[in-house]
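Run log, item B.
One chain of 180 residues. Sequence copied directly from the ordering sheet:
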Amino acid sequence: MRLTKPRRRDRARPRLTARWREAAGRRLTPVQRSLLVTWISFGVTFGTARVITHGIRGGWLPWGDVSAGGRHLHHYNLGIAALAAVGLIAVRGDEQAVGHPAVAASYGCGTALICDEFALLLDLQDVYWAKQGRLSVDVSLGVMSTLGAYLTAKPFWHEVGRITRDHIASVATRDPHEAA
């Protein structure tokens, strides 16, 4: 009978995501966590809305516009509904709900859906696809979302960068016979 050397799993570093979570616990206040979730959900929702609307307009997505009673429903309507729900939670004052990440995400999503069609709200006409300024608005809101998420938790992001660099360096220098 031949004995094999046991894998050295016990020496392995914690998973990268676990280390990021630990950094968030050390570096982020509850308010910063909520703001971070808000900014990230804003950016993801805004980007997703842009991709979907381009896909519908370009015909490469299998569905079309959403309508009710023959009228086109703009996605700012969903944004207004999301903000109304968040407002109701805030007015009710339920401590657990107010600081909940789902509330922060709903606020970010709703705001993004409204901002994406802001020109339509201002002009009260559908200028959504006018070339003038559309790209600059897209880029501006994307930059604003990224910058907001960064500035909300700057020390956290610096620690996440250091943790990630250290993790990549340790993986690169790991003995190839050691367990991954």
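Observations after the first pass:
- The mean pLDDT is 82.
- The CA atoms of residues 17 and 164 lie 9 Å apart.
Flagged for discussion on Thursday.
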